[in-house]
């Protein structure tokens, strides 16, 4: 099965991993705004 790691701040898919069942993990991506929330918003 497949698990996916999403950024909990911007929702970007960071990586996929093999898991026993479909699972969503939340982490943070490499963007500064996500590593340090409150510093500013993504400018897109
Ligand atoms: Zn992010």
Automatic annotation (TrEMBL):
It comes from the Bacteria. It holds the Pfam family SR1P. This is GapA-binding peptide SR1P. It comes from Paenibacillus radicis (ex Xue et al. 2023).
């Amino acid at each position: 099965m497949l698990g996916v790691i999403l950024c909990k701040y911007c929702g970007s898919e960071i990586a996929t991993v093999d898991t026993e069942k479909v699972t969503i993990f939340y982490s943070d991506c490499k963007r500064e705004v996500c590593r340090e929330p409150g510093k500013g918003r993504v400018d897109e």
